[in-house]
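Colleagues,

Please find the record for the two-part complex below.
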Amino acid sequence: MAATIKYDEVQVGQEIPAVEYQVRRVNLVMYAGASGDFNPIHWNERHAKSVGLPDVIAHGMFTMAEGGRFVTDWAGDPGAVVDYGVRFSSMVVVPDDDQGATITISGVIEDKLEDKRVVVALNARSGDARVLSKARAVVQLS
Amino acid sequence: MALNRDFVGRTFEASAPYEVSRMKIREFATAIGDDNPIYRDKEAAVAAGHPDVIAPPTFPIVFSLSGAGNGISDPGLGLNYAMVVHGEQRFEYRRPIYAGDELVCTSTITEIRSVGRNEFLTIRSDVTSTTGELVCQAYNTIVERGGAA
């Protein structure tokens, strides 16, 4: 396995440009099926509102998966991600329309480790809210 | 109601190994909107140095709590699942997960703590091959809202 990004060409503080990911209701239905998480707060507006939520919200793991996609697309090889962790700090509300919600993810090289590994800190936002905090991936570069 | 601290240290094993299929990886990758050929096309995966298609980094969520589910639904723990939200998640890899892997998952409740009015419960899941090779560890923290009140 080999990342396309070279360790020697990466500097601490270097930014990875933001990418926007659309989330529509259909994406949550697909994610429920693929992941096995059928909690109705992720697809049933009536249920979501009955438990005090503003509307249907995305699975936290869906948002985390988009962060993973951001990192693997940057690194060039999904196998290069050796550690990936997040805290779910706010919810992604997904209205029932053609636009859905937008998750905007950017990154910065936070540290360079031994063995050609780097720490990528992620910033994930939806609307005014920061939806992931303490989001870090350790990536094996070449 | 506070969660039962006696559950800290308890271990739960999935009833059977999880068989990773190319189709399940493809389904998961499609669901997260990721069209990376390394998740779909064996030739592309081999060209990138892998033995077969590999799974996205968050894929273990599909199976890593299958054993722990029995533990956290035990009435003795006192968890009100309707009030649960996902607090934190982490995956630590020794190697990628490949199509064809048969994975054994053992989950341990490592910590229960109160933060304000909420209860935090952390589960570590050790994912190994059927020959005992450690593949990855998943750390899952769930939050029971109002549980500590």
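The interface with chain B takes residues 1-2, 21, 27, 30-31, 33-37, 51, 59-62, 64-66, 68-69, 71-73, 77-79, 81-88, 134, 137 of chain A (CB under 8 Å).

Comments are welcome before we finalize the supplementary table.
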